[in-house]
Amino acid sequence: MWFRYGMVLAVVLLAIASWSQTSAEQHHSVAIVIDDSAAAGKHQADVAKSVQRFLRFFTSDDELCIFAAKEKPMLWQDFTSDPDILSDRITKLYGRGKLALYDTMLAAARHLQSESGNDVRMLAVFTSGEDNASATKFPTLLNDPAMKTSVYVVAGPEVDWRIQEPLQVLVQRSGGRAYFVRNDDEMLEVARQMGWRITGRNDETLATNAGKPLAPYKVVVVPDIPIANSRSTEQFSGGDNVLLHRVLVSRLKKAKLFSEVIDASSSDAGALSSAGGAGNGRLELLATVVGYEKGSRARREFLLFGGGSKLKVQVVLRDSASTQPLLGFVTEGSASSGLLGGSDEKIETETIVRAADQIIVELRKRK
Predict the structure, then answer these.
(1) pLDDT digits (tens, 9 = 90+) for 131-147
(2) What pLDDT sits at residue 305?
(3) Per the structure, how many domains does the chain have?
(4) For 105-133, how does the pLDDT look when each residue is reduced to its tens digit (9 = 90+)?
(5) Does residue 23 form part of some domain?
(6) 21 in a structural domain
(7) What angle do CA 247, 253, 257 make, to 5 degrees?
(8) pLDDT at residue number 247
(9) Residue 303: band (very low, low, confident or very high) from pLDDT cuts 50, 70, 90
(10) Domain with 60 in it: what CATH number?
């Protein structure tokens, strides 16, 4: 029976890999350069709103960093996929002093070249003033190897031909685009257009859902949790998978990630049928115990933090109606009582609880 389940699980995971490859989008690494000089000072709040709108077009598979264009370049926020961190850092810019725009663009491009993790790399520039502090001259910037990446620019509202001309030459050379705005409202709309052109995602909702595939689901169904038939699970006590199932169902209800959590275990066989069976908007959570390392009481007596247990659980999530796999991951829970000891049963129970908690953490990221 375990062999058959293992074969089914392998097929499901293979389907996820195949489906992911066919529907995969390009993943982006973007260095954002934001004018933080006196020229941008009175427009700083609107620039922040525009950049924040731009951020909405990216998902958790993308990564972005922020460079502040001051009198000297400053890495304001290194690469992250967390939009909340990026949005918060943007609000900390204050707009003072001179503007070393060329120096900052070059620093950002080199950082993008050396530190980014995705194949598609972009430079996005938001500026309100003319460069008046860079050591880098425009021809040097234009011919630097790092500037071969695509450059997108939003400039304004107070820009003239002296600012526009070099930026137009730069984006034409790189294959990017330059937008020159007349007011702060235009800047907000241009940020949306630029996000769409870079990512191909035509609205913010699409970008949000692309990074959170579980967002549309309101109901989750949790069947029994089997134990994989392998040497890695030989130490896992029979019946503890039932405890893991109960804890996971309880944690899901407490987390309130879904409006309804259905316990579809064999001990509660009527739950699924009484809830109306499979249907649209319903998610199946298929978990399997794939590894367990039993703690050692002897080690706990001699090592301050040794002798702990580790439980590894593989999770596949699929749509109930179509049985289409959505995603899969493996998570681990561990527990150790340290110097004070504690029974093996207590450590094993704590390990199960922590494994369930880690599953909730992973689901929260995708919901």
Answers:
(1) 999 999 999 999 999 99
(2) 44
(3) 2
(4) 999 999 999 999 898 999 999 998 889 99
(5) no
(6) no
(7) 120
(8) 96
(9) very low
(10) 3.40.50.410
Do both 354 and 237 map to the same domain?
yes
pTM of full prediction above 0.70: no
Whether 38 has a pLDDT exceeding 50, the answer reads yes
Residues 151 and 234 reside in one and the same domain: no
- The answer to whether residue 315 sits within a structural domain is yes
Sign of CA dihedral 252, 253, 258, 260: positive
Q: Are residues 122 and 162 in the same domain?
A: yes
Residue 127's nearest CA partner among 162, 159, 166, 97 is 159
For residue 224, give its domain range.
Answer: 213-366
CATH number at residue 338: 3.40.50
